[in-house]
Design brief:
Helix content: 25-40%
Radius of gyration: 29 Å
Strand content: 15-25%
Shape: globular
Number of helices: 25
Structural class: alpha+beta
Length: 902
């Protein structure tokens, strides 16, 4: 998120040049006294002065109320869209109906596909244009043009210009099918028709606020490339293991021990959980596909100060990219699909809840897109979740098929360590030219900045994008300077692709073959697709452009993408992509269900190789257990059952750690009070649970006491599923080196000492943070969801604006690696939610109108709209809303109808 400069000063100068307080009543709050000579008439004078003071205060209050009312009416409510009556929309070939339900969700009915997407663009601009404009500025590397001379915005622009997201999107516009291009352009026409007759302050309140500090002109016209560039941002936040790849190298810089580094990055099989697919689920040709390339020990160059500096610089640059979809611990998703043999309706059911960054407004836009008569010329009859700024539906269902997406986590990025000398890069024994170009970053209210972008055959050099320190030299060989180290990023999304085509193919898919064809076009981001068909099938399909890495026997650098690679050696270059027909898939497995929740896709040793860095599958295993228990009991699954599973808060962390914590003796009764909460705890991370609060504090402190002395600050444990696997193995090894605190000289700590220390400090922490009596602790008091506007929600923004843009904080249930994955980052020391179920959807193909959905905030991006947060309370409480689909159901649920006319 990027914060604009404060739009308001702190107030007029006060006495003696001190800052005053805007809106304070200090001028009328002096003590009321009279001189001695005036004593006989004091009562009358006092009443007179008091009356004047009361009148003065009343006038100030009234003026403040009038100003607030005017601000609300004129500024905040002015951008609210028209949702009833009739509006002309240029370019339509016929009338279009927009039916909104009581939560403002639009269902659009049109006679042609182009009219459908033109209307979708118009409606998206009505509800969410500033969000679209903000994203467009980010993805084009032009954020400083919108928010002004904000250092974070300029850094983001530099990095994204280096990536060249928009340059790639421009190439993709010529690559997608003519039909897709027509849909993108129709959507853009609808957006522009909405913008044409409106000044900025009529479009969004954000322009009014920003206009107080920067020159806000009329927004530029939307174009098809703006929509395509958004796919790059989505792909960036959902890329694979780049964090782990850099963390391995940076951990080695302090540990200097490959074995200890490997201990921090265990394999998926170490977790003991089930992959998405079993060998019996796969077609015969897939079980023989090539598996993991060979790995090896680390390169001797890693751990040197020069290379560590380059890697740290690269990491700093990548961290400058604003979070748009989600990043870090908790970014993933749950999805599952169950055969009709096990459902009450007798037809397949599907659930999906993507775990992404949570902000205001929500990332998702609920929408229905319906051709009045479905035909080959107008094939769309689909509803679900879209992105403001992109046509079509990303996750949802049509009349024949429902689909959900979860992040596969495939390794689609590699860092190449380049040896640079002047404008050349070493390849083998030769020095070849580096490609350069100049990008100009314009800054609202300030001078433009020229940026030189350098690119090698592997990708853009990212380690010198930001001004993070002097260039560091590489070692010398036989007296010859080898140059400096640079880090280049290879990423599949920097090759133009056809993901936009895949979206429309999925929207009209009817069966497994259609899903497979769409997946072949779904280049980035690599996702798991689970699907169900109305004729009774369930399935899984892996899409994505996955690099093929060659095996480099005997090399000191691993060849499987888990560590940075040597850019000098061509054997480490990517060898192409995994063919689409080799991507994992399954149809109607014997189990009767499929669960895809970011765990490994395939069993170990079964190809193709996708990555070595998976989520460790504790969420997926819990979902599998709950489904299997009900199936074994002969109880048919319902929509309500699926919703209950989505909100499950049982913690696998508790299952692993609580027995070990209860085995530790704490002699002091006060210190042991927290530990006693764990004895009868059911392991659920519920908002009202004292034990959940204590356990989370113990987990945070345990990670700190165990690992902070061993690792660099920027890779402190976030507390995700990997760390549970690491700690579980360490519990069986009381003398593991990680238990020892390096900061205590001549003392070697044991496992039980560290466990005791974590519990005692947690008891004392919560006494300060909440209450002395543990019975008064509540997990929801610590575990707060604080939704923020991406531009006007941060701490540098004046409080009245923040209160307008940001919903009030609210305590929530759930935690990291539980099914209700409201994650938090233990490395920051805070329990605040960092990611979570950005929406929840359940589809019953036996009765599509009985399906349910909810999003974290609401459909509107306008803080003056009742639909800005009207779904938040239901989301927090685990409730959902009806998800009407058929024409009759939509009309019955309709509250507002807007007719768009040519």
């Amino acid at each position: 998120m990027i914060r604009a400069r404060p739009a308001f000063p702190s107030g007029p100068p006060g006495p003696a040049g001190r800052p005053g307080r805007r809106g304070s009543l200090a001028c009328v709050s002096e003590p009321v006294t009279a001189a001695p000579s005036e004593q006989p008439s004091r009562p009358r004078r006092r009443r007179s002065r008091l009356r004047r003071l009361v009148v003065g205060v009343a006038v100030v209050v009234v003026l403040a109320l009038v100003a607030a009312a005017a601000f609300t009416t004129v500024v905040v409510r002015r951008p609210l869209p028209q949702t009833t009556g009739s509006v002309q929309l240029a370019g339509l070939s016929g009338d279009v109906r927009v039916v909104r339900d009581e939560r403002g969700v639009p269902q659009i009915f049109a006679d042609t596909a182009e009219d459908l997407f033109r209307a979708q663009g118009f409606v998206a601009a009505q509800d969410r244009f500033f969000e679209m404009d903000y994203r467009r500025h980010v993805t084009a590397g032009r954020l400083a043009e919108l928010v002004g001379d904000v250092p974070a915005a300029i850094e983001a622009d530099k990095v994204i210009r280096t990536f060249g997201w928009r340059r790639v999107a421009e190439q993709e516009l010529d690559l997608v099918s003519p039909q897709t291009r027509a849909f993108l352009e129709a959507y853009a026409d609808g957006v522009n028709a909405y913008l044409a007759s409106r000044d900025p302050e009529q479009i969004a309140v954000e322009y009014t606020v920003l206009g107080l500090s920067v020159d806000v002109g009329r927004p530029e016209k939307w174009d098809a490339v703006d929509s395509l560039a958004w796919l790059k941002a989505m792909a960036w936040d959902l890329r694979g293991n780049y964090d782990q790849e850099l963390e391995r190298a940076l951990a080695y810089s302090t540990l200097q021990d490959v074995g200890m580094v490997d201990e921090l990055f265990p394999s998926f099989t170490t977790g003991g959980n089930t992959p998405i697919l079993q060998p019996g689920d796969l077609p015969a040709e897939q079980t023989a596909a090539p598996a993991t390339p060979a790995s090896a020990a680390t390169t001797t160059a890693l751990g040197s100060p020069a290379l560590d500096a380059a890697l740290s610089s690269a990491r700093d640059a990548l961290a400058a990219v604003p979070v748009l979809v989600g990043r870090g611990e908790g970014t993933g998703s749950n999805s599952w699909v169950v055969s009709g043999d096990h459902t009450a309706s007798g037809k397949p059911m599907l659930a999906n809840d993507p775990h992404l960054a949570l902000g205001a407004p929500s990332i998702w836009a609920q929408v229905g897109l319906h051709c009045t008569t479905v035909s080959s010329a107008c094939p769309f009859d689909v509803a679900g979740f879209s992105f403001a700024g992109f046509p079509g539906v990303i996750i949802g269902h049509n009349g024949q098929l429902a689909w959900g997406l979860t992040n596969m986590g495939a390794d689609v990025t590699d860092f190449f360590i380049e040896r640079l000398r002047d404008d050349t890069v070493q390849r083998g024994d030769e020095w070849v030219p580096v490609e350069t170009r100049t990008e100009t970053i314009r800054v609202a209210g300030s001078a433009a900045i020229d940026l030189t972008v350098r690119t090698t055959s592997h990708g853009p050099i990212i380690s010198d994008v930001l001004d993070v320190g002097p260039v560091t030299s590489a070692p010398t060989a036989q007296g010859t300077l080898l140059g400096s180290y640079g880090v280049a990023l290879a990423w599949t999304a920097l090759t133009p692709g056809r993901t936009a085509d895949a979206v429309f193919e999925l929207n009209t898919a009817k069966n497994a073959d259609d899903v497979r064809a769409a997946a072949a076009l779904f280049d980035v981001p690599a996702q798991n697709i689970v699907f169900a068909t109305a004729d009774g099938h369930i399935g899984y399909q892996a899409p994505g452009r996955i690099p093929v890495r060659g095996d480099v026997p005997g090399s000191p650098v691993p060849s499987n993408g888990t560590w940075p690679r040597d850019g000098r050696d061509p054997r480490f270059d990517w060898q192409g992509w995994v063919p689409a027909d080799q991507m994992p898939r399954a149809l109607d497995p014997a189990s009767g269900f499929i669960v895809a929740a970011n765990q490994a896709v395939l069993p170990e040793g079964v190809g193709p190789y996708l990555t070595s860095d998976w989520d460790f599958g504790f969420r997926s295993e819990r979902i599998r257990t709950l489904l299997q228990e009900q199936i074994d009991a002969g109880e048919k699954l319902t929509v309500d059952d699926f919703n209950t599973i989505q909100n499950d808060t049982w913690s696998p962390f508790a299952q692993v750690l609580v027995p070990a914590l209860l085995d530790v003796r704490i002699d002091d009764d006060y210190d042991a009070a927290g530990q006693r909460l764990l004895r009868d705890w059911d392991g659920r991370m519920d908002a009202d649970s004292p034990a959940a609060a204590y356990f989370a504090a113990v987990w945070r402190n345990l990670l700190q006491d165990t690992f902070w002395d061993d690792l660099p600050p920027d890779m402190r444990p976030d507390g995700g599923s990997k760390w549970l696997v690491v700690l579980r193995a360490m519990l069986d090894t009381p003398d593991d080196p990680f238990w020892d605190d390096r900061s205590t000289l001549n003392v070697r700590e044991s496992r039980d000492e560290i466990l005791r220390q974590a519990m005692v400090s947690a008891r004392r922490d919560l006494t300060v943070e909440m209450a002395k009596n543990p019975a008064d602790w509540r997990w929801g008091t610590l575990h707060q969801l604080r939704l923020e506007h991406p531009v006007l929600g941060g701490s540098t923004i004046p409080a009245p604006v923040r209160r307008l843009m940001n919903p009030a904080p609210i305590g929530v249930s759930g935690s990291s690696s539980v099914v209700n994955a409201t994650s938090w980052d233990a490395g920051t020391g805070s329990f605040e939610v960092t990611a979570g179920p950005s929406m929840r959807m359940v589809v019953d193909l036996g009765d599509v109108d009985a399906s349910t959905w909810v999003t974290v905030t609401g459909t509107s991006g306008h803080p003056g709209s009742r639909h800005y947060t009207d779904q938040l309370r239901a989301w927090v409480e685990g409730r959902t809303f009806p998800f009407p689909f058929t024409r009759d159901a939509v009309e019955r649920a309709g509250k507002d109808v807007l007719t768009l006319t040519p």
